[in-house]
Amino acid sequence: MTVAPSVSAAPARTFPEDFFWGASSAAYQIEGATEADGRGPSVWDSFTARGRIKDGSSARVACDHYHRYPEDIALMKQAGFSAYRFSLAWPRIIPAGRGAVNPAGLDFYDRLVDAILAAGIRPMACLFHWDLPQPLEDAGGWRNRAIADAFAEYARVAVRRLGDRVGDWFTLNEPNVVAINGHGTDDHAPGLRLGEKGVLTVLHHQNLAQGDAFRAMRAERSGLRLGTVCNLQPARAESDRPDDQAAAIRWDAVWNRVPLDGVMRGAVPDVLAPWFEGIVQPGDLDRIRFPIDLLGINYYSRMTMKHEPGRLFDAGWGDAHCQRWTGMGWPVQPDGLYDLLLEFKQLYGNPAVFIAENGAAYDDVVTPDGKVHDAERVAFLRDHVAAVGRALAEGCNVKGYLVWSLLDNFEWAEGLSKRFGIVRVDYDTLQRIPKDSYHWFAETIRAGRVV
């Protein structure tokens, strides 16, 4: 195996014995079988049908995980995973979003959970990873406060069926991306441009739905570990100019603080107060605040912001002044993960967190001998795992690290063209090919330190 030397100067560090390792995935990105066994349509099916996927592909088959999950779980076990975060497909379980439950959908997740447990892996279920049932979108989706009731009902159904075996439950994945990319910039489903007020409305209604779902799950089964998953990125100004500094503060408030301050503090950021007028109703913040047990943090890079009139919240992307970039055009900034974890410890009292997603897309090449020598991804993962180790040494309460992702998969609006997996998927044959990064990750798990 060819492994690139680390760019980071951080020394290897030992992780605690109970530190958990594994990967995360999203149902829509890997399952396929979009029309099988009673599954209903989602907003991403509709978005795809409108020709909004850059490479013209779809998730109709994706990785065919719906049928090939035993093979994928075997890869997890072989690598030594101790945890796996996956999402449930809301339209597979309740096709209309609320009301009639699809037994075949729950049966699939029964089989999946049982197979994960049989492999000695901890199942961690996420209720919503972006695939909103289309009938709910037709009724206003996240723009409609009534969605909170539907989400709580869905949470009860899922926990009632799987809560005897799944102890870790997460409500939302990256509500900021759903609000901003799906309802502000229109490059994700459902593909809307609602302006600042609309974006904050969607964020607020996700927070409301989450609070109601937490209480529904707790009432259904008291011993569960409950949490949520946020995409957090330190927001830095491009320059010392006051307007750039102000833009970074506003963007940090929208991207990081609305999801965090809602659940952690029952508050909205002061800088956004003018936009929140008329959105927050009496009692809302009490509904939103909830004492979670475990927070998932997704980290990919910092955000460098500048004042840009005409963009959402007058904030645009600045020059990251970075030397390394992923295949998505994202800067490689492992020190940002270290900074984020220390900042979170200081601002929120050091609650239990885990890295729920961290990874990189690169243009992988299969060599004539059928291998994938993804040295850039190995270096990316090594440097970010080392950053987590540094944060642990500083007393940050980090419980685990999950790579994004086990498999190459349907990368939302990018389609099948961007590969994040540590296992390559040949989309013609569906063959799985472990990359060098898979083998490096397995060695790191076995060693309990960065190798």
UniProtKB/TrEMBL annotation:
Catalytic activity, reaction form: Hydrolysis of terminal, non-reducing beta-D-glucosyl residues with release of beta-D-glucose
EC number: 3.2.1.21
Main EC class the enzyme belongs to: hydrolase
Single annotated GO MF: beta-glucosidase activity
Keywords annotated in UniProt: Carbohydrate metabolism, Cellulose degradation, Glycosidase, Hydrolase, Polysaccharide degradation
Pfam families in UniProt: Glyco_hydro_1 (PF00232)
Coiled-coil segments: none
Organism superkingdom: Bacteria
InterPro entries associated with the record: GH, GH_1_N_CS, Glyco_hydro_1, Glyco_hydro_1_beta-glucosidase
Family: Belongs to the glycosyl hydrolase 1 family.
UniProt-listed NCBIfam families: BGL (TIGR03356)
Protein name as catalogued: Beta-glucosidase
Species in which this protein is naturally found: Phaeospirillum tilakii
High-level lineage: Bacteria, Pseudomonadati, Pseudomonadota, Alphaproteobacteria, Rhodospirillales
